[in-house]
Amino acid sequence: MDKNGFSKACSGKLVPTIGGRKAFVPDPLPPQGLDLNPILPVLSRATQAVGELKGIGRTIPNPMLLVRPLQRREAVSSSGMEGTYTTLSDLFMFEAGASTPDRQADNREVLNYVRALEGAIADLDDLPISARLIRRAHGTLLQGVSNQRGGQVEAGEFKRDQNWIGGSGSIETARFIPAPPQETPDAIDTLMKFINRPEREEASPLIDVAMAHYQFEAIHPFGDGNGRVGRMLIALMLAESQTLPQPLLYMSPWLEKNKAFYIDLMFEVSQTGNWIPWIHFFLRAVAESAEETIRVVQRIQDLQQEYRERFQTARRSALMLRIIDLAFERPVMSVTQIAQELGVTYAGAANNVKELIREGVAEEVPWAYPKLIRFPGVVEVMRVE
Asked: pTM to 2 decimals?
């Protein structure tokens, strides 16, 4: 990367780095003199959709019935954007203790994403969004992955070598060279000050998230895993600001479908300092992701209600309804896991599972050992459209 394409109005500065190249260090947020009038309609749509999703979260007796599957949809899509591929069904299988050998590495990495996201959200009880919090999430994300998948990168630590984006594996042909290692800690600290600034309550939280997500990706603070941690930051900021206290909005399925625009518009901010196309795109992503999530939530709730009405009769065991509810958190389980989760005997769990299999709600996974029970209808309603 050199000065070609970077105008005087670019959103940062170019500094020397290895190979005689120039790296990009973004200016502190917020950008000055930004006219937000062109994006007010899409901001209104996004705010309304997130507000509706927030309302749904408030009415659910057990939000984890929705949070857990939505986080796993996010993990599958966000990891897929970085070249790690699995399916939602395979991830549920792996989490329950079974996986085909050719999918184990991918599934482990995607499950790491789930655990990093869950851990980071839990950390908000004790920590602000901070360098410490995102480094901890990064450490979980890359825990135990192979060298080909980022294992050579020190998990939980900022980069020690210059990284770059695009090109044919060489910095000479890179499309974008983010902040050098020596600039990274200060750039991240400056970003965290923006995220936690006292006057943030006067700003639109959705616009703040759009700018912070760009800034994180422009800094690219880790040797690997930046895209996934940057997308985690979206959910963290929405939860921390109470814009969406229950972490129900995950945008990776939508961003994965629009990956080229996603990357190009962030690059345009760096080159030209033109924030409006990027913020408009991001707010559209928020709006359409929230609207899609509302549809997924409705499908989940409709199916859960259908199952409960179907089995809520005088001759049915109350345990059966508890198993059905648990299936919406964990659509693939062993009978032992069901018994342990619900605090019942193995025999009690097994008898009710047999009934659910006879009724076509559950099925045995024939190749899995130990034997696993899958709820195919539940997996299907959670699919990414």
From this structure: 0.90
